[in-house]
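Hi team,

Filling in the usual template for the complex we talked about on Friday. All components are listed, including any nucleic acid strands or ligand strings, so the model treats them as one assembly.

SUBMITTER: L.P.
PURPOSE: interface mapping
COMPONENTS: two
RESIDUES: 974
SEQUENCES:
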Amino acid sequence: LPIPLLSLQIFINNEWHESTSGKKFPTYNPSTLEKICDIEEGDKPDVDNAVEAAKAAFQRGAPWRQMDALSRGRLLHKLADLLERDRVILATLETMDTGKPFLQAYFIDLEGCIKTLRYYAGWADKIQGRTIPVDENFVCFTRHEPMGVCGAITPWNFPLLMLVWKMAPALCCGNTLVIKPAEQTPLTSLYIGSLIKEVGFPPGVVNIVPGYGPTAGAAISTHHSIDKIAFTGSTKVGKLIKEAASKSNLKRVTLELGGKNPCIVCADADLDLAVECAHQGVFFNQGQCCTAASRVFVEEQIYPEFVKRSVEYAKKRLVGDPFDARTEQGPQIDQKQFDKILELIESGKKEGAKLECGGLAIEDRGLFIKPTVFSEVTDNMRIAKEEIFGPVQPIMKFKSIEEVIRRANSTEYGLTAAVFTKNLDRALMLASALQSGTVWINCYNALYAQAPFGGFKMSGNGRELGEYALAEYTEVKTVTIKLSQKSP
Amino acid sequence: MKKQGSDSNPAPVLPALPEPLKDLKIKYTKIFINNEWHDSVSGKKFEVFNPANEEKICEVEEGDKADVDKAVKAARKAFELGSPWRTMDASERGRLLNKLADLVERDRLILATMEAIDGGKLFSTAYLMDLGACIKTLRYCGGWADKIHGRTVPMDGNFFTFTRHEPIGVCGQIIPWNFPLVMFIWKIAPALCCGNTVVVKPAEQTPLTALYMGSLIKEAGFPPGVVNIVPGFGPTAGAAISHHMDVDKVAFTGSTEVGKLIKEAAGKSNLKRVTLELGGKSPNIIFADADLDTAVEFAHIGLFYHQGQCCIAGSRIFVEEPIYDEFVRRSIERAKNYTLGNPLLPGVQQGPQIDKEQFQKILELIESGKKEGAKLECGGGPWGDKGYFIQPTVFSNVTDDMRIAKEEIFGPVQQIMKFKTIDEVIKRANNTTYGLAAAVFTKDIDKALMFAAALQAGTVWVNCYSAMSAQCPFGGFKMSGNGREM
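RESULT (copied from the run log):
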């Protein structure tokens, strides 16, 4: 790959290393199905080395611990500057590795990364404890200390963005990191290693170990010297991680998992807005979003018109080469996901949903699936219950608000929800009633660094973004000092 | 001339200590669900003992999975949108908590007597300290109820964004036997304050005060199903809670070993949120420039309080070399001539350990201390022919590799070790997988604040020990826990 600064090795102590085992693994371009390159494959010994480095960088008296908080913030700002400088390179790498349309990688993924870094850069010197009016003659205050060595396991749907969502608050609060990017999409994470070094983060503060879940990932979640783990991925793996954290050393855990997110369109909604938002909400990123609007509930009166307009949108959606500026939808990430989506589409047909458009793969070669719309979907169908993670929009009908609240909440997931209505009372009532970490009103996927994001129920534990992420990366210490007499 | 300060800031006034109730009748021995008393589904009961004389106090209905299921159903219903509890004003929730505090105050004597008999706790301690803390914690959380604020967030783009801090839902709470009532209140108070409903499993050794609280909760006017109490054992009722698919959060205080099982169960079942308050091997660091009398006294109480059965016990005392011998001498003086006996009687300074299992574990660790070469300064064995009493024991010349320096003893056994330099003692103090509390005694401000930063502990005390209050957050670094209480 003729890209400057991109090293395909393991990043520890600001240096590039071969894997201890000597093994490498390939990464593919899902649009062309061709291998892009081979990457050093990290496993337990490499994770151990990374953790040692991260631990040393976190020692009392180490440069990272002695650094003023303001300087930590400045380093994060500089990193944002370098991302801006290398924006085209990173967007290109992300597109090659994930198949997402280049313009989306450039304008959405990279934008989110830069803004999130700058947001947390600003927090670095504002991590405040409290003074506490305790009974009797004591001075009592809390310190919000960094937790220590944080493991971060990131997914393949937004590789760089999901990494920055973890890296930014972790570094802002003074922690050190050991990162394992998804094996399908390691390139942008490795590139950021070189930027970390260029910016001037001390060695050992950020370490990156590419590899697989059951090996490198498991080594992180079971590690006795990792103080906290943050994971974004499937609910199934999230459970294994929390279990491993418990069995090992009770490391603190935050999880961002799956969703089966309800999108509720009331009869008084702005119909064009609702159709467009619901469409982008489910089809964005090839349907590969934890926030995908994969259960669209439409009030009876406007149902036929809503379906008609949604089908028009879906039919217009341009699927093709992600480097083509006109493309809106690229390929799915790999064969496994592709097969799973087609299987769920078949189940929709079999279980009696009405296939309005799409419903099959696009060509014999490649991982492209036609934007698919199902109507007459009922709650017991697999496409209404299971996370599809593909370009499939199930549309269902509802009569009353009470009914739709009950149906919307009737899932173990609870990541996001959306409501389309002009009625203030209804909007605010639904905002309270929906069991979701985020409720969007008259919009979709409005995600910004300032607003906390995370799941109710089995969509996750804890929150990313906003001020709330700081609590996930700090450990509270209470200091109580006795005075000889009580002072007010 | 009167000092201006002395009138406006009086010393804390403790109530006068009454006599414990004679012939305390145990009225509440059943499972509390929906403000009603239920027999166990299985029909089984279990026995509750007085550790001071090993005699049976009474029998209590034994809850198991089926009873937990009933309780969770009731708690879920009470949490439904539109229910009385969900539609209640936040301020009203606060008023109910204050009312509960009033009732605890009214029945202070009953509860203190019961806690002393069931838990082997000194009556004076139960009445003044435990009950005092319960009342204060209820009032503290009562005050927060209508101050659970979300935020408005200046998000990019043309959006209006705000956060809501909603109750989590049905909270399972598993309570230990060392401070049964205080730990019960530490869990239900913040949970109810925030609008959750709870299913509580008190320790099988000490269920009585929790069950009594059921009657007060009903009397205070909490709607049915908001608080449910299922006495029973860990592997049955406790596990049913931690594995339950309809419990949204589990809070546990107890051993690190069981804490790990609970978090694992949470991960395996439904990813319920977890907070844990676990064990400790807390370092207490005494510098040569400390006020020696104060340090000796705090180190003593910091270890021996409640027969050493505290998660925060200062069980590794590091004394700076120059004052080591004198410190050991004074500590022995303090620990000798203790009156052990019936914790209800005035003049008794130490009660029994909670049960046979703990009793044997502590004696085994004392033996290891002797075997591994620590110097036994006083105590070192059991006391009396009935009840689980152990003599206050002091070991000096303890080194870091001994079992008594590494393992949590949870008994009246004090370890005193020597140190030379600051860097050395910081390293040794932090050299443990625990991280609950720590203390430093020094008059030097630089040293004090440096240790406050360097010690890996959730609470650091300076020139005191065990100073806890409802306002201060409490919890562990590392394997001493996840999350904070208070």
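MY TAKE: Chain A touches chain B through 58 residues (CB under 8 Å). Chain A has two domains: 10-257+459-477, 262-441.

Thanks, L.
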